[in-house]
Amino acid sequence: MKSLLIANRGEIACRVIKSARARGIRTVAVYSDADKRALHVQLADEAVFIGESAATQSYLSVERIVNAAQASGADAIHPGYGFLSENPALVEACESAGIVFVGPSAQAMRAMGLKDAAKRLMEQAGVPVVPGYHGESQEPSELQAHAARMGYPVLIKARAGGGGKGMRKVDSAADFQTALQSAQREAKASFGDACVLIEKYILQPRHIEVQIFGDKQGNVVHLFERDCSLQRRHQKVIEEAPAPGMSVAVRQAMTHAAVAAAKAINYHGAGTVEFIVDGSQALRADGFWFMEMNTRLQVEHPVTEAITGVDLVDWQLQIAAGFALPLTQDQLHIKGHAVEARLYAENPQAGFLPATGKLERLAFSSAGRVDTGVVQGDEVLSFYDPLLAKLIAHADTRTCAFSQLSSQLADSVVMGTQTNREFLWQLVSHPGVLACEFDTNFIDVHLDELTNNAHVPMLVAMACAELAAPGFFATDTDSSGGFMHHVQTRCIAQALGAWQLWGPVSRKLRLQIEEDYLTFTLQQESAADGAKGWRVRSTDMPEFPVKGVLITGRASLSGNAQVLVDDQRVHVQHGPFAITVNKPAIGQGEAIASAVDSVSSPMPGRVVAIHCAIGDSVKAGQPVISVEAMKMEQELCSSRDGVIELVAVQVGEQVSSGGELVRLKAMSAPDAT
Questions:
Q1: Choosing a second label site near 287 at 20 to 30 A (CA), which of 147, 322, 569, 608?
Q2: Which of 439, 445, 444, 446 is nearest to 206 (CA)?
Q3: Residues 6+ apart with CB under 8 A from 307
């Protein structure tokens, strides 16, 4: 293997390039219109353009990937994860072209690629599986009948793919058909396959998976387990290894089942066998069931690398080249504890909607490992998964690993788009997580705690102080002093009043926070230590303390702070907390507030379903439009009771962030007669 094409993008493409380069292998990147200046393109020895930004026209095209390999002289293809990584058509196309595929055989992929067939195969191999319907019929009434026989709650799951796409928990029969249609649409958009299966939903479940590796000589080993129970929307958020509470006996039973699953399909390469585990009591050998097998490298593979000292990508390259496994089972051991957090461009306060925007400032903590595919100045677009980076901590104990990850999250700076950084920090610092008292429902149960906004008044006050006096935070200190650090570009403060000539210096400002336009009063004061500052108040913002917040350039806050101002927005970050506020033109707030209510798209995307028509009466919270972006489908709901006056879009139409989708008018008063 002399030249390797990576049929992927982002952080996994960068990760594969690193291991290939260490082995002396030439690397070839592929890129779409949206990725012309992406980091993986810059890192590779060569890059080949493969098509338009839409994944179906580039990264999901087997023909374009193989053509790119042939044009660049690559003799091997690594698929990364996602996209074509579990598509047997790519494996077969590689074989026809005489190109080595870094991964399992097409036969193994097909055996495990469809969850329904995989479960039937595992039953035959004696591996315990979750009760459910894994048959061929996709008739909605039959699927609902199976769900009724199992008893609610049930889980609808796309039979292809992974990552939580095409998966819906259903609590009652009344919700089944709507959830089924949504899951099928998302599955079709993500994997080109709308077929689903139905499973009994395990109460208090934990998600524990086993990393396995096989070679072409028939040897299979496991590299222990990972716990991926901390999830939202059935997508992993925090992963750790080894699993908390895992005994020697349970580990032996679970890893034995995983190895048996791999041997049943003559598996070679990296794979992960995922189990759903009864988390209502201590882990036990008869309390886990096979869910699926991922026939590829996993997003969370770094935690396994950390505790074993193994470069899993390097192992993939060796196995693909025909070598035997580098280590035997007896030579593999666990060292310490590792935990990984997935940093996404998304808004946790708005149901984890994907976010877009330019990364105006980006600086990751150097305390641990960071896998990323973005750099400062990159634009986060709506075409692909919004993963920005993975932060990985490794220490002697679980407590120390989580403490290190908490510091990594707090010390990393991301400005220009909304992220889940603050949410992740709250999560890895939560007493329940630290005490290992969690299951896959943990985030849903504790969502209010994990997305609380008690820090918002302080951050808003900092934004106001900088706008009132540009450069307010620009003067102090060094990174060890715990004071303000400032990066400033163009600053245009939107003032509603001039400076007072007599009495305390004061000023009024208007800022846009989410959808609200709020007025703030600032008055110059001195803190107890004599430092000059601003007392910021707002009667429009209920969370603001009655006496306001006093902001100084030095001792107001512990820890570092960052303030970034441009023509349109103010970005503030203090430790793990961050906020971005807009600076609307004077009078803009009043104009918008008086406008007719409408439902707008919170992100760029594609309309996949319309649930209303002109003249329909709708209630607050009723779904009216479904928009798909970054491979996730989002239902948009009416904010109040009303009558549909306008439906401004059609199914299949691309919409921009903020674009009006549906307009509402007030319901007519009942006739008094």
A1: 147
A2: 439
A3: 224, 241, 242, 334, 335, 336, 337, 338, 394
| Residues 575-632: tens digit of each pLDDT | 889 988 887 654 444 443 334 477 888 777 889 899 999 999 988 778 899 888 766 6
Q: Report pLDDT digits (tens) over 122-151.
A: 888 888 888 888 888 999 999 999 999 988
Sequence-distant (6+) residues with CB within 8 A of 149 are none
Task: Choose among 473, 496, 495: nearest CA to 551.
Answer: 473
Q: DSSP string of 247-277?
A: -HHHHHHHHHHHHHHHHHTT--EEEEEEEEE
* Residues 551 and 534: beta-carbon distance below 8 Å: yes
Strand partners, 633: 628
Share of the chain above pLDDT 90, in %: 59
In sequence order, which residues have a C-beta less than 8 Å from that of residue 447 and are 6 or more positions away? none
Residue pair 67/44 in contact (Cβ under 8 Å)? The answer is no
* Confidence at residue 590, expressed as pLDDT on a 0 to 100 scale: 42
At 458, which helix (H) or strand (E)?
Answer: helix 456-468
* Amino acid residing at 538: S
Mean local confidence (pLDDT), 219-230: 98
State the catalytic residues: 296
Pair 373, 10: CB distance under 8 Å:
yes
pLDDT of 441 > 70? The answer is yes
CA dist., res. 9 & res. 459, Å (int): 35
Alpha-carbon distance of 644 to 311, in angstroms, equals 57
Distance from C-alpha of 100 to C-alpha of 91, rounded to nearest angstrom:
9
Place of tokens 């990751």: 364
Which 8-state DSSP code applies to residue 673?
-
- Does the pLDDT value for residue 498 go beyond 50? no
Q: What share of the chain is helix, strand, coil (3-state, %, to 5)?
A: 30, 30, 40
Pairing of strands 549-552, 205-214: unpaired
Looking at residue 70, its pLDDT comes to 98
Contact 524, 479 (CB under 8 A): no
User: Can you name the residues that pair with 167 across neighbouring β-strands?
Assistant: 157
Q: What is the pLDDT of residue 559?
A: 54
Q: CA-CA-CA-CA torsion for 355, 357, 359, 361, nearest 10 degrees? A: -90
Per-residue pLDDT at 156 exceeds 70: yes
Helix axes 10-22, 312-320, angle to 10 degrees: 70
- Taken in order of first residue, the domains within the chain and their CATH numbers are 3-102 (3.40.50.20), 131-200 (3.30.1490.20), 205-450 (3.30.470.20), 456-588 (no CATH), 596-665 (2.40.50.100)
β-pairing verdict for 623-629 and 632-637: antiparallel
pLDDT in tens, 543-576: 888 889 888 865 455 556 788 888 788 888 888 8
- Which residues, in sequence order, are CB contacts of 407 under 8 Å at separation 6+? 365, 367
For the packed helices 115-124 and 106-113, what is the interaxial angle rounded to 10 degrees?
100
How far apart CA 122 and CA 327 sit, in angstroms, is: 27
Does pLDDT of 500 surpass 80? no
Q: Name the E strands within 482-638.
A: 484-486, 506-513, 516-526, 532-537, 549-552, 561-565, 569-574, 577-582, 598-600, 605-610, 617-618, 623-629, 632-637
- Which residues lie closer than 8 Å to 546 by C-beta, 6 or more apart? none
The band of 528, judged by pLDDT with boundaries at 50, 70 and 90, is: confident
Contact 388, 345 (CB under 8 A): yes
